Amino acid sequence: MANQKVQEKTNTLETYTKVSEKLAKHLSKISAVHEKSAGAKASEKDVKAHKEKISDQNLEIKALRTKAAEWQFKG
After folding, report:
1. Does the global pTM surpass 0.90?
2. How far is Cα of residue 36 from the mean position of the Cα atoms in its chain?
3. What letters, b where the CB count within 10 A reaches 16 and e where it falls short, cover 11-28?
4. Helix, strand, coil shares of the chain as percentages rounded to 5?
5. Statement: residue 70 has pLDDT above 80
6. Nearest to residue 47, comparing CAs of 61, 55, 63?
7. pLDDT in tens, 2-49
8. Is residue 73 predicted with pLDDT exceeding 90?
9. Which helix (H) or strand (E) holds 44?
């Protein structure tokens, strides 16, 4: 009887161990996906910032072209 209870507890412990290992693998995969997602979000922010910078630079170029045209007209 005692051996049977020990065997049952051993089986239960083995089951818990297997489940724990599977959960750890899934958690690892979820963490990897989360890191990729965070990286993608950071990249999106970088792209947005670069687009804004390009837009600002385009405005500066237009202003400089306007000034250059004024100077040519005056000269």
Report:
1. no
2. 4
3. eeeeeeeeeeeeeeeeee
4. 95, 0, 5
5. yes
6. 55
7. 899 999 999 999 999 999 999 999 999 999 999 999 999 999 999 999
8. no
9. helix 2-74
Instruction: Show the tokens assigned to 5.
Output: 């209870």
Distances (CA, A) of 66 to 11, 13, 52, 62, 75: 82, 79, 21, 6, 14
Whether 75 has a pLDDT exceeding 80, the answer reads no
CA distances from 54 to 37, 40, 68 (A): 26, 21, 21
| Nearest Cα residue to 73 out of 15, 3, 65 | 65
> What are the CA-CA distances from residue 74 to residues 38, 66, 70 (Å)?
54, 12, 6
